[in-house]
Amino acid sequence: MELLTVVEPVLEDPNIEANLRQFCLVLSVSLGVATLSRVFSVLRNIPYTLLLLLVGLGLAVLDVRLINLSPQLILFIFLPPLLFEAAWNLPWKRLKQYAVPIVLYAIVGVVICVGSLVFGLQAFAGASLATALLVGASLSATDPVSVVALFRELGVDKKLTTIMEGESLFNDGVAVVAFNLLLGIALGLEQFDLSVTVARFLVFVGVGISIGGLIGFGLSFLTQRFDIPLVEQSLTLVSAYGTYLVAEELGGSGVIAVVTTGLILGNFGSRIGMSPRTRLVVSEFWEFVSFFINSIVFLLIGDQVQFQGLLDELDKILIAIVIMLVARAVSVFGLGAFSNAVTGPNMELPLKGQIILWWGGLRGSVSVALALSVPTVLADRQEIISIVFGVMLFTLLVQGLTTKPLLEYLGLLGDQPLRLEYSQMIAHRVALNRVMQRLEDIKANQEFDPEFISYQMALVDGQLNEVNDRVTKLEQQHTVIREYASEQLREELLAIEVDTYAEFIRAGQLKNELAPLLVKVLPEGEARG
Fold first, then answer.
1. Could you write out the three-class secondary structure of 218-282?
2. What is the pTM of this model?
3. Which of 120, 127, 295, 374 would disulfide-bridge 30, Cβ 3.0–4.6 Å?
4. Are residues 131 and 265 in the same domain?
């Protein structure tokens, strides 16, 4: 009875019911947009997240406000799982390959962006120092979710995709740290000191990496001891939020911590501690979480726009857009040239790729969250929010919607359709071989009329020959397909080796993880002849 006495008032709380209704409304609108984008062909060319943004803007025009989008909602509820999912799916070997441009863009690029906006907004827009500092820090965070999704769909070069995604992951962490460092200066509570700022930055990042590493490796070795997909899936979800909160509580960067944990679990923990079935379950779960959260975030961002504020600050918004594009160009092309000189021709990022990186540097949820987190005591708070929202809308609607045509113009559309056709042919071949094996077993056991089974086998064999011919032609005509097939085979063989060691550990026959032998035996990048 005592328990019911406590629970009943909670269940009757009208706020809970109202919030649940709002959440269901947001989810219904998001899923409705997702459905319409697949039903009508004209909408398929628009990235799903940008379509949600347009719908949100339409609701804002009608003054239909769904949920108040607070910085806490973005930074503590939406951001950790989005960061974790992106890091989970980012291969460490490619990240390591392109570490130089990623680090340059993520750290030096932020400095260039903030410095340019601080100088430009004061010199050309007459903005105050506080406004210039906080707008610069907010807009230094890139968020190319739509562009990266488009890259994956079109099969754009992995180098370009990895650099853009890697930059975004680490850039978000650096931007959040930069915002926190500059907030005290903007409020007049601190004086800028280069050595102190650098020291605090290193502490933020160092604590974040340390916490993320401890949790990532700890969970990796823990999951070696059992194979329960739902438990391991739940552990990854807890780690995404837990890592962020612990790092923030200990004075580190929660963003950097989550990215570190996601990278470790996705590239190390999932290999040594998860069976192939569990890895598939966890990966599909995070794909759903990413889709779910992005569906809500972009709809709410559009829904939060205050058009009167944008009109009031239109001159400063236009100046900020120009400055940001120029700063991004200096960052991408200048640092890209330096990176190419340092890394050599094999790792070189071509000019066309740099153009896409420049134009694809969108701003999104992190920029909005930072702008909304400006304290209300600051007189210029609404001005800062309006400028950030205005620039963010330009990047998402203008740059985001024109990225695909730009890829086509530059000839950078990838070979995804070709790879998809090859994968389908391989799946057909495996399936038909299994059917043939089953027919042979039936014939050997005399379960059906032998003449009938022979006829069925002839039909299947004819279809199998057609598939084999198509696979052979694809491999002979396209070097990229041979490389892709070799890469897939290498990944499969390495996975078999690592999964075998994990089985021994779970059975108690081994105590420590063995280093894979085939990593050196099967070098990367060997195409089949």
1. HHHHHHHHCCCHHHHHHHHHHHHHHHHHHHHHCCCCHHHHHHHHHHHHHHHHHHHCCCHHHHHHH
2. 0.79
3. 295
4. yes
